[in-house]
Amino acid sequence: MNKLLLLSLGGLMLTACSQGTNKEVISEKAISEKEIAEKVNTSAVQVPANLELRDDKLIQKKVEPNDAVQTGLLTGELQVTPDNGLSVLLSITNNQAYGVLIQYRSGMTADIQIRDPQGEKVWAWSDDMMFTQALRDTSIASGQMIKQQFTVPESVLSQLKGRGYSLVATYVGHATESKQVAMTDVTVLLDPYIN
Predict the structure, then answer these.
(1) Within a 10 A sphere around the Cβ of 151, how many other Cβ atoms?
(2) If you average pLDDT over every residue of the chain, what do you get?
(3) Which of residues 188 and 62 earns the better pLDDT score?
(4) How many whole angstroms separate alpha carbon 183 and alpha carbon 170?
(5) CB atoms < 10 A from the CB of 113, how many?
(6) Would the pLDDT of 23 be above 70?
(7) What's phi and psi for 176, nearest 5 deg?
(8) Residue 20: pLDDT over 70
(9) Whole-structure pTM value
C-alpha cells in the first residue's frame, strides 16, 4: 500500500512539474508573440496624410475649410513672348468633368499686373482701359479653353530696374454655383525679360 501511495504521489508531482514547465513555455510563447506584434506594429506601412485608420479600415479624412488649399475650378497658364515689350497670352481651361457657370461683372475677362519684389502693383493692363458695366453670364464647358491676349509696352518694361518683378494674371469671372474661386492667380517671374 505504501508503494501505491508513493506511486500516486510521484505521479502527482510529475504532473505538477510538467504543468509548471507548460506554464513557463506558454508564458514565453506569449511574450514572444507580444514582441512580434510590437515589431510588426513599428514596421507597419505609414498611412497617407489624407487617410486615417478607423476600425481597421482606411477612411478619407475630412478636410476642414481652414486647412484646405484654395484651388480654382479653372486652371490658368501664362505664355510670355518678347515682342516690342511683352506679348502675354493667358489660357484659361476648365479641367472639371462638368461645365462651370461663370458671371463677369463687367466687360473685362481678365487682367495682368506687374508687381515689384515687395508685391506692390507697378502697372496694370486695365489702368488705361475702360469696360462696360453690364453683367455677363456664360458657361465654360468641360475641356473648353478661353484665351485672353495682353500687351505690356516697352515703355513699362524700361522703367523696371533690378530683379524680382513678377507678372500676375487675374481672372475676374466668378463661379455662380460654387463657393470655390473660379481661378487662382497665375504668376510668372519677369527676370528673364528685363535687361
Answers:
(1) 14
(2) 78
(3) 188
(4) 8
(5) 19
(6) no
(7) -90, -20
(8) no
(9) 0.62
Between CA 75 and CA 95 the distance in angstroms is 7
β-pair partners for 151: 87
**What is the per-residue pLDDT across 99-120, written as a single tens digit (0 to 9) for each?**
999 999 999 999 999 999 999 9
Query: Which stretches within the chain are classed as H helix?
Result: 2-42, 154-158
Across the range 65-71, mean pLDDT stands at 44
Contacts of residue 114, defined as CB under 8 A and 6 or more positions apart, other chains included, come to 121, 122, 123, 124, 152, 156, 160, 165, 166, 167, 168, 190
Q: Give the E-state strand segments of the chain in sequence order.
A: 51-54, 57-60, 74-82, 85-94, 100-104, 110-115, 121-124, 136-140, 145-153, 166-171, 174-175, 186-189
Q: CA 175 to CA 130: how far, in whole Å?
A: 23
pLDDT at 71: 76
Cell numbers placing 103: 458671371
Size of the chain in residues: 195
What are φ and ψ of residue 98, in 5° steps?
-140, 165
Neighbours of 77 (CB within 10 A): 13
**Can you tell me the distance from the alpha carbon of 83 to that of 81, in angstroms, rounded to the nearest whole number?**
6
Q: Are 165 and 194 in contact (CB under 8 A)?
A: yes
Cell match 516690342: residue?
A: 84
pLDDT band, residue 31 (cuts 50/70/90): low
